[in-house]
Amino acid sequence: MTRIARWKPLGIAAFIVAVLIAIAALGQLWITRSEPYELARALLGDKLGVAPHTIGLDRFAGFKFSDGPDSGHARFVLCGASGKCFFVFAQKLEGRWAIADLIER
User: Which terminal CB of the chain, N or C, has fewer other CB atoms within 10 Å?
Assistant: First the structure.
């Protein structure tokens, strides 16, 4: 087995990991620039009695996000500075986003 043949599987694995990390980073960027993210931060800030800018996305939690012209849904986790985290469920109906549920994790 040649030297290149031994390193090829590692190179392929590294490439796949890099692509997955890039996809996750782009998804998180998409969420943090979305309307449901801002709505959830404001609602959670009121619920916890803190400023919305102290609440952020849990980078290691899973997320789902789809956005169409009239409908969509989002699921992600927001955490406050106190360490309390909440699952956020948002829906877009008739072109308007609304927070459907906030559940403490």
Answer: N
Q: Take residue 66 and report the two structure tokens written for it.
A: 């789809």
What are the backbone dihedrals phi and psi of residue 58, each rounded to the nearest 5 degrees, phi first? -75, 110
User: Which DSSP state fits 81?
Assistant: T
Give residue-wise pLDDT tens across range 36-89: 999 999 999 999 999 999 999 998 899 999 998 999 999 999 999 888 999 999
Cα 31 to Cα 25, 51, 64, 84, distances in angstroms: 10, 19, 9, 20
Question: CA 91: distance to chain centroid?
Answer: 15
Q: How many angstroms from the chain centroid is the CA of residue 38?
A: 12
Q: What is the pTM of this model?
A: 0.82
- Which among 87, 83, 84 has a CA at the least distance from the CA of 40? 87
